[in-house]
Amino acid sequence: MKRTWTGRRLPGVVLAAAVVIGGVACSPASPEEGASAAPESFGPAGYRGLTPGMAKDAALASGKLATAPTSTLDGCADFSYAGGPAPDPARMKAEADAEAKAKDLNKKADELQADPEPKPGASAEESAKAAEKSAKDTRLFADAAQASADLAGKREERDKAFVAAGGASFGKNGLRELAAPSDAKTAEGIGAGSSLVELKTAYDAKGVKVGDNGRFQVPVDGKPDWFYEFTVNGEKVGSVSMVDSKSKCA
Q1: What pTM did the predictor assign?
Q2: S-S: 182 plus which of 173, 192, 219, 244, CB 3.0-4.6 Å?
Q3: Residues 1-45: tens digit of each pLDDT
Q4: 55 in the same domain as 166
Q5: CA pair distance 81, 66, nearest whole angstrom
């Protein structure tokens, strides 16, 4: 016989059925049930399995980073997180060219010997040659200085792109800088978009200061030589990273 639901609630029947069927319907949900996991903090334990001082090979094997670097300027290798910005061949070539030019010109400038003073009674030809060499040396020094300035500009562009996208940078001793993606925050709740007031409130007691590069710096708890670095645009935090102060690129 086909049974139909009449829509009438029979006293005691519905409640009994709910209790009998596995005893589930009237059981209260556990506190964890349905609750979303707390977002991962960017801090001393690292981020996405990448930890301070981690070897490059181990970090790449984790699958958390892209397989090709976005920059190798100065001997450091910068990698985006998996799915992040791809390498820009034109930018990388410009960095390599600027680095090679600066090294070449500064090497030549360092090798120049001081010009001897023209001897008394030097001929006009000798004086002209000395003046020509002096002018040539002056141009070399100026070119070397300009090349160094151009290289500094490339470094600044690289650093801004790196911290804006987030990722990991490796030197000769392993992970030297870990940059947070834009949606990550420290355990104190500071991340991109936080106000300067919030930054200072969170870290004043931990000795926040402005570094030589103009970024706000705070020691990382439990990680000697490591510090947080916050870029600030106007009154807002632009990016967050952790840096090993003693790590070298090459």
Answers
A1: 0.78
A2: 192
A3: 433 333 333 334 333 333 333 444 444 444 444 456 678 999 999
A4: yes
A5: 6
Report if residue 42 sits inside a domain.
no
Give the rounded distance of the alpha carbon of 118 from its chain centre. 54
CA distances from 180 to 29, 211, 230 (A): 35, 19, 10
- Domain endpoint, select from 138, 173, 208: 173
Clarify whether residues 198 and 237 are in a common domain: yes
| End residue of a domain, out of 154, 173, 192 | 173
- Residue 210 belongs to what domain range? 180-250
Task: Identify residue 45 by its one-letter amino acid code.
Answer: A
Same domain for 161 and 64, yes or no, is yes
Q: Are 43 and 220 in contact (CB under 8 A)?
A: yes
Cβ neighbours of residue 239 closer than 8 Å, sequence gap 6 or more: 163, 164, 166, 179, 180, 182, 192, 230, 231
Task: Name the nearest CA neighbour of 45 among 246, 184, 182, 205.
Answer: 184
Q: Which two tokens stand for residue 226?
A: 């490591």
Structure token digits, residue 222 = 């439990």
Q: At what angle do helices 124-165 and 89-111 cross, to 10 degrees?
A: 150
pLDDT digits (tens, 9 = 90+) for 59-107: 999 999 999 999 999 999 999 999 999 999 999 999 999 999 999 999 9
d(CA 8, CA 109): 98
Secondary structure tally for the chain: helices H, strands E: 5, 7
Structure tokens given for 43: 């801090």
Residue 210, Cβ neighbours under 10 Å: how many? 11
Which residues, including other chains, have CB under 8 Å from residue 34's CB and lie 6 or more apart? none
Residues 159 and 246 in one domain: no
Tell me: do 107 and 221 sit in the same domain: no
Query: Phi, psi at residue 87, to the nearest 5°?
Result: -60, 145
Domain count, the chain: 2
